[in-house]
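Folding Problem: From Residues to Backbone Shape
Fields: amino acid sequence; protein backbone structure tokens
RECORD BEGINS BELOW THIS LINE
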Amino acid sequence: MAIIVDTHVHLYPEYDREAALCACAQRLELLAPSTVTFACLAERHDCHAYKALLAKVAADGGNDPRYQVLEDGHCIVFRPGGGESPLFVLPGRQIATRERLEILCLGGDASIPDGEPAELTIRRISEVGGMPVLAWAVGKWLFKRRRIVAKLLNQFGPDRLLIGDSAMRPTFWPEPAAMRRATREGYHVIAGSDPLPRTGDEHWTGRYATLIECALDPQKPSETLLRALRNRHTSIRRVGSRCGIFAFPRRLRG
């Protein structure tokens, strides 16, 4: 069985939240028909969409057929229209470190502060049961931070750290040296859409994702995904599209 995951989804306050989830589900289904679809949130310190979704389900008394909570709140099942194939939505955080790197916490909604050293941030994520992701972002892996990225790869092995690729990384740029090194050394390089905080960008979700070969436990989707990502022998590949030569400057300008 295969699952397809957008590993870098934002549900910013500027978004129509349901439109974002629908767009994600539809794009993932187009990228890999007949697979199980996942969206991993990566929320900033000032964003709490996952908690809002949990509160909505509780307020509705579980009577809204579009939403279902699993794993004691560690996964929300979203069914567009109430009856279509499910999108498994997992909590997650995006943390800005002291070095101005981006670290994602997949599968966890614990409050992890911004501004701490990257090494400590990665350890904190592991302690709360999340999976740390060293996420690529424009300009963040250059100059002095390039050495910091290399140091983190030296400190944390493939079973303790993932590398995050983004739809924002232009197709005309070469793959970063750290990403190439990570691939050689057996790290999983995972893909996500990483939409921007502006109205309308919710339709960007689902365009760049990770295809994973694993057996899904439908009652424990979050546990299934995290276990597969922690296993360096899991077969995964990136699918979808990134920014082209014209889209990239437009997105930077906003």
User: Anything to note?
Assistant: Residues 14 and 199 are 5 Å apart (CA to CA).
